[in-house]
Amino acid sequence: MMAPELADSLVLGLGASLIMDGWALLRQYTTRTPMLDYGWIARWVAGLPSGRMSVVPGQGAPLSKIERSLGWMLHYAIGAAYAGVFLSLAGPLWLESPSVWPALAFGAVTSLAPFLILQPALGRGVFASRTPAPRAARVQTLLTHLVFGAGLYGTALGLLALRS
């Protein structure tokens, strides 16, 4: 990936992730549904080299400040990586004339990662099957990732306006 494409991926991914986090904060405020503590992702990733494939939030030692910080960094790095994949698929012309539907479709597809990887790794089962309300958890995951897709689009519009 060339330097301009890398910079675009970083900006799009960070912007979309910030928008997604804004959505999660709004949801937390209005519905009292807590945000995912990204420290659990850091603890899970740290255990992978030793063969630990899952971590159950609330079990074991409390999360450290370092785990929480690393978790947030991972969250934004994943957002930037997703944006890079999206730009590779959508092509460089998408940034010149962004359209919402490819971004929303990509956001929907990215929900497969939590459904098939993260939720099972955090003891919540495939497609949130081990949560108290699986259907609600699935809807919230999909909505959150659609907001990420909308964030890709909104950030791209912002970049376009800055470049004009």
Short summary of the structure?
With 164 residues, this protein is mainly α.
Could you characterize the architecture of this molecule?
With 164 residues, the chain is mostly helical. It is 73% helix and 0% strand. The protein is built from seven helices and no strands. It is globular and about 50 Å long. It starts with a helix and ends with a helix. The mean pLDDT is 95.
- Count up the helices: 7
Report the oligomer. Answer: single chain
Query: In percent, how much strand structure appears in the residues?
Result: under 5%
- Total beta-strand segments: 0
Compressed to H and E, one letter per element, the order equals: HHHHHHH
Major sheet details: none
Q: Would you tell me the structural class of the helices and strands?
A: mainly alpha
Give the radius of gyration. Answer: 16 Å
Low-confidence sequence ranges: none
The geometry reads as globular
Provide the fold topology.
Elements: H1 3-31, H2 39-47, H3 65-90, H4 93-96, H5 100-110, H6 112-121, H7 134-163
Helix pairs in contact: 1-3, 1-7, 2-3, 5-7
Task: Describe this protein with a few key phrases.
7 helices; 164 residues; mainly alpha
